[in-house]
Amino acid sequence: MATEPIDVPELAESNESAKERLLAAAEEIFADYGYEGASVRAICHRAGMNVAAVNYHFGDKETLYVEAVKRAHNCSDTKPVDDDDPTAPASVRLERFIRHMVAMMHEPASPSAMKLVVREMADPGKAAATLVDEFIRPIAFRLRALLQELQPHQTDEERLMTGFSIIGQCLYYRQNRRVSELIFGKPQVEALTVDMVADHVVRFTRNAIGLGERPA
Amino acid sequence: MATEPIDVPELAESNESAKERLLAAAEEIFADYGYEGASVRAICHRAGMNVAAVNYHFGDKETLYVEAVKRAHNCSDTKPVDDDDPTAPASVRLERFIRHMVAMMHEPASPSAMKLVVREMADPGKAAATLVDEFIRPIAFRLRALLQELQPHQTDEERLMTGFSIIGQCLYYRQNRRVSELIFGKPQVEALTVDMVADHVVRFTRNAIGLGERPA
DNA sequence: ACTCGATTGAAACAAACGTTTAGAACAGAA
DNA sequence: TTCTGTTCTAAACGTTTGTTTCAATCGAGT
Questions:
Q1: Do B100 and B203 share a domain, yes or no?
Q2: pTM for this predicted structure
Q3: Are residues B116 and B35 in the same domain?
Q4: Is residue B132 part of a domain?
């Protein structure tokens, strides 16, 4: 009681390691089965820990979920878009934006993290607000700024819809890949590589907003 | 045993009415809470029936779910696209296709039915195959045929991606509406009416595939 | 060695889950 | 009426859920 806790550096490490394992396991299970479908027991089993671990480290299932989603969006690779060259022409930066977006959707650094993030976005829950603030909105505002440069004569609403058209194309392959495979067969869809899709979306979008064919 | 069942006309009606109420309730609850999140008790309570009703009429929860999804896609309005005038030019039929698609996503005849269908598409389960066969694939093949008319010089893969770009734009507003509201604020997104979005997607797509601005 | 706070383990908790059972209520046929 | 089959209800089934309890274990400070 009387003794102040002082700092516990190495203990904190092992603490983080335990929480980290739990978060990693939660990310996978939540991504695969959804919030309701994932059981605390399955998560703890995956983490090699006891059922009580969730309650001890996070309090309850919901808190664990929110923390897992927060951790997931940190694992996503936002950086390549951050160090974008601001001196390049807007049309080039738009192309880079699209290519980064398509790549992120097709081959995310952490598939289960991306899966979990997209799941939360499709059905926004308690973690959605944080996710939007720290992960989604920055990307959306970057695109909006680009479109303001490229189409200053258009209204805000027109640019908003243009942004949705671009994002909609990129998101399609992540949100509807499996259905597409059911429709056209898996080989047909798998034949579409990241580069092919990126090239297509860039060309489709450039034509759509009047940038014309991309110069070689 | 010895007596054959004969026909039971009016009894069959009341039977259908009971199953129908159950299916309607299941559609709403499953659409709102997902398969795992929806409880058999909640569905039966909504239908004003006993818990055992699900097991009596459908056997188990999963069968009820599949039947509810099948019923949901029947409630969706596929017809307006069916009686499409085949004599009109392909570019006009494409525009009609897009407008119908956008309208169906924005203001479906039965919101809960559409919600349930989209949910199953996002996370394909046991009902996905039927849904694709009877509901999704016909639409997709119609679009593919249109693009074959409009862009006969392109490869199958290019046309496939073009189709995905078009569908991706239409689906965006249904799959990511709530996130968009979180990003930009509800009023900004609600300001986009069905007609505005349809006009935009038509113009965006026409430009993208080289049809030029639509003639007045 | 001893103490004490942090962490883990096995077990159990009440509640909710999908499912089942046995019988009541009903309608038509004999 | 009596019988027969169908439909519905109340109650309970066994299992699984998220959560809690409490003692065992560990690690560092005195």
A1: yes
A2: 0.90
A3: no
A4: yes
Cβ neighbours of A7 (radius 10 Å): 7
Q: What is the mean pLDDT of chain A?
A: 89
pLDDT tens digits along A75-133: 766 555 555 677 899 999 999 999 999 999 999 999 999 999 999 999 999 999 999 99
Inter-chain contact B175–A171, Cβ cutoff 8 Å? yes
C-alpha to C-alpha distance for B76 and B193, rounded to whole angstroms? 20
**What is the percent of chain A with per-residue pLDDT over 70, rounded to a whole number?**
87
A67 shares a domain with A107: no
Q: Write out chain B residues lying below 8 Å of A168, CB-based.
A: 168-172, 176
Q: Interior CA angle at A138 toward A132 and A144, to 5°?
A: 115
Residue of A nearest to B159 (CA): A200
On whether residue B31 sits in a domain, the answer given is yes
φ, ψ for residue A8, nearest 5 deg:
-125, 75
Torsion of CA B114, A136, A180, B80, to 10 degrees: 40
Residue nearest to nucleotide D7 (CA to C1'): B15
DSSP state string for A113-133: HHHHHHHHHHS--TTHHHHII
pLDDT tens readout for residues A136-156: 999 999 999 999 999 999 999
Residue B215 has pLDDT above 70, yes or no: no
Same domain flag for B59 and B124: no
**Is the model's pLDDT at A8 over the cut of 70?**
no
Residue A19 sits in a domain whose CATH number is 1.10.10.60
